[in-house]
Amino acid sequence: MRLHFLASLLFVHVVNTLPLKVEWREEQERAQDEQFATVQDMVGDATGDSLKIVGKRDSITPLMTDCQFSIMMQITAVAETSSTTGYGACDTLDDGQGISAGYIQFTSCHGSLQKVYKLYCDQKSNDLCTSDYESAISAAQGYGNCGSSNSGKNQAPGLDGFCDAWKKQASDDADDFAKAQFLVAKAGYFDTIVDSVSKYHVTTALGIAQMFDTAIQMGPGTVDTLADRTNQNVGNLEDGGVSEADWIKQYVYERKLEQINWGGAYVGTTARLQPFEELVAANDLNFDHNDVTITLYGSSYTLVAKC
Fold first, then answer.
1. How many CA atoms lie within 13 A of 27 on its CB side?
2. Contact 132/154 with Cβ under 8 angstroms?
3. Checking CA distances to 104, which of 86, 218, 239, 248 falls within 20 to 30 Å?
4. Measured distance CA(208)–CA(248) in Å, rounded
5. Residue pair 30/110 in contact by the 8 Å Cβ criterion
6. Rg (CA), the chain
């Protein structure tokens, strides 16, 4: 995988009870832990203080083209940070999840932020990669009530100035900082939905993108939950009784119900489904022209594939 290509490519149901909310977060942590070993295997020793990717591949994934993958990543990045290149985004949001940082808003609550930090800082020495921050960010996983809350600020102690240091590295070391985020996003989220894509016979870029965006916002385990409900309501793709466009429409509807049932900060995020609704209505299921125009939270974005 070419390093300059990675840098150019880059840019968090119906759950009715609290124990189930906790359960999906625990499942997400387990999935990320399993996939993080893959990330570490992909990164070799530092060369010239730069992250080194071990090996090359013809494409990022056999499920879709690199151009489609690029647009998929950008859709989610815009939903999370209102930017396709929000690697330096960092704040303690009012969602109970501690610090949210990076282009897909990795969080300190359930450990995705810690994985980016470790991957990057294991090979770096700078204002972000200090022993004090290393200890504090490690202790922030599961801090307070973040495993069972969808609202409220919940920053762990010892992280004052962390976001300033994060933003500085996004500027000072843009390529490697973006690269670390990409690797964790792919292994910790995209790779966890590969089995679901096959299980539910999803073949279009838009269908895969919807599953990926679900995994980012609500955890990989939620993908199958929503797909099962979609099958129950409109039929399954394997039997050919429903078009993929109609299947995606129903999946998006099931996801909207899920967000509302989650409550808290998630109720206000139903608008992030608008790009998927617009694209399926336009029958642009495979990003055919390698660019798409989407509307999110009242703003229009033209996303051009970087591939």
1. 16
2. no
3. 248
4. 10
5. no
6. 18
Across 92-96, average pLDDT: 68
Print the SS3 string covering 124-163: CCCCCCCHHHHHHHHHCCCCCCCCCCCCECCCCCCCCCHH
Amino acid identity for residue 147 in this structure: G
Domains of the chain: 3-86+174-304 (1.20.141.10)
- CA dihedral for 81, 303, 185, 21, sign (positive or negative): positive
**pLDDT for residue 307:** 82
Rounded CA-CA distance 236/64 in Å is 21
Single-letter amino acid code for the residue at 205: A
pLDDT for position 2: 30
Which of 184, 204, 187 has its CA nearest to residue 64?
204
Tokens of 73: 């990543």
Residues listed for the chain: 307
- 259 backbone dihedrals φ, ψ, rounded to 5°: -60, -40
Phi, psi of 272, rounded to the nearest 5 degrees: -70, -10
Confirm if 90 and 219 have CB atoms less than 8 A apart: no
Residue carrying the six token digits 């897909």: 104
0.85 cut: is pTM over it?
Answer: no
